[in-house]
Amino acid sequence: MPNQTTSGSQEKISALILKAKSKTLLAPLELFENLDILESYECWVPFFKLIERHIPSCEKRDDKLALYKSYIRAQNLHCRRQKDAISMCRKMISDLKMTFKEFSINIQPEILDPTDPYGEATFIKSIYKAFPNKKDRVASLENLCLVYHKKFHDEKSLAGTYDLILSIDKTNIKALKYFKVYYTQSESWESVVTVLEQLLRIAKNDDEKFRVALELAGIYLYQLQAPKKTLNILDKFCTSSSLDTNTLKYDSYLQLREWDKCLRLLDQALSEVSEDHMRASLYFRIGQIYKFKGNLEQAYKSHIKSSKFWPQLLEPIEEIAHMQVEQKNWHDLHITLEKLVHLVQGEDQQLKLKSLKDVLESCLKHVDQK
User: Which of 26, 182, 286, 355 lies 20 to 30 Å (CA to CA) from residue 73?
Assistant: First the structure.
């Protein structure tokens, strides 16, 4: 609420209005005292005229900054004339060669309404071009992204602003990482690859380069089924990395059906583990590779080893049972089915296996009697 005017205050305001119309320049102390009075009574026309006349003649930067700030705050928060506030804000940034850091710390909190995120976003988007260098323009737009993200979750405007950032700075990490997530969520894998390749080119150190390269290699392998590209990336960027690349290599060789290379990796892994369950898992994989190669004898032996290392592991016993059926090795199959009955989960599966075992057992007795 403006102050209640009395006859004395009315005379004072009238005198200030005359000063505002006059071309006489006031000393800084008198100027700011007059502006405080005009603001307290919400006499905005003379308030703005005084500021507009004195800004060009201010010798001290701090005084000029205070005038700009008062003008913009009054236009934006009191008079709700955002366009006029934005126009003067652009002029202030250009005139004072202001950095975004200075603006965000000393100006923004005083001229914008924190309860009006849409107004805040409009204001920031309208002034970013006024900053004198690319770094500050990008910082301003990054600030705008925070508003879109945190205050009203506008994904379309957020994506558009990050795209604008990349048009100014193609190596902006925040924008690239945003689009990596954005394209991943929409499963636009070719676009994810493009972003990761850019991140790989601008990686600042080896560890960062390794991590990006592994992610890129994984996208090529698991999403685009391009194992040769995966292997090329691993060979080019990850040979000196301490990060494990064997899983990606193994799965690449698996897609390429390069069975001997798969076996070499599995043999190497066997020499590096001591836990029985890990050995069992590796021998099971070795058995599967031998099966793919058509070497059923070695496949059978590997699955037997797997089962011995970890009898609770279901998969190798299932494979053994299938092979025993193919070999018509009914006596050993009977023993295998007995193991499976105790390992499988679910009452229905147990009943089916038990029924099959009983039938097989009956058949074996009949054969033995003959």
Answer: 26
Contact 248, 230 (CB under 8 A): yes
CB 352 within 8 A of CB 341: no
Query: Does pTM surpass 0.85?
Result: no
Take residue 235 and report the two structure tokens written for it: 């060979």
Distances (CA, A) of 23 to 15, 26, 49, 105, 139: 14, 9, 10, 34, 40
- Give the residue-averaged pLDDT of 72-91: 96
Q: Do 182 and 159 meet the contact criterion of CB atoms below 8 Å apart?
A: yes
Spell out the long-range contacts of 73-77 with Cβ–Cβ below 8 A and sequence spacing 24 or more: 73/110, 73/111, 74/39, 74/44, 74/47, 74/48, 75/48, 76/111, 76/112, 76/113, 76/119, 76/123, 77/111, 77/113
Amino acid (one-letter) located at 45: V
Query: What are the distances in angstroms from CA 316 to CA 39, 253, 301, 302?
Result: 85, 22, 10, 9
Q: Give the separation between CA 301 and CA 201, rounded to whole angstroms.
A: 47
Q: How many CA atoms lie within 13 A of 285 on its CB side?
A: 21
> Looking up tokens 């002029």, which residue turns up?
91
User: What does the pLDDT look like over 234-265, one tens digit per residue?
Assistant: 999 998 877 789 999 999 999 999 999 999 99
Give the integer Cα–Cα distance in Å for 129 and 141: 10
Residue 230 Cα distances to 187, 215, 220, 221, 333, angstroms:
18, 10, 6, 6, 41
User: What is the torsion angle, in degrees rounded to the nearest 10, for the CA atoms of residue 90, residue 96, residue 100 and residue 103?
Assistant: -80
Neighbours of 192 (CB within 10 A): 23
Whether the predicted pLDDT of 349 surpasses 60: no
DSSP string, 148-216: HHHTS--HHHHHHHHHHHHHH-TT-HHHHHHHHHHHHHTT-HHHHHHHHHHHHHT-SSHHHHHHHHHHH
Residue 257 CB neighbours (<10 A): 11
Q: Tell me how far apart the 2 most distant CA atoms of the chain are, in Å.
A: 130
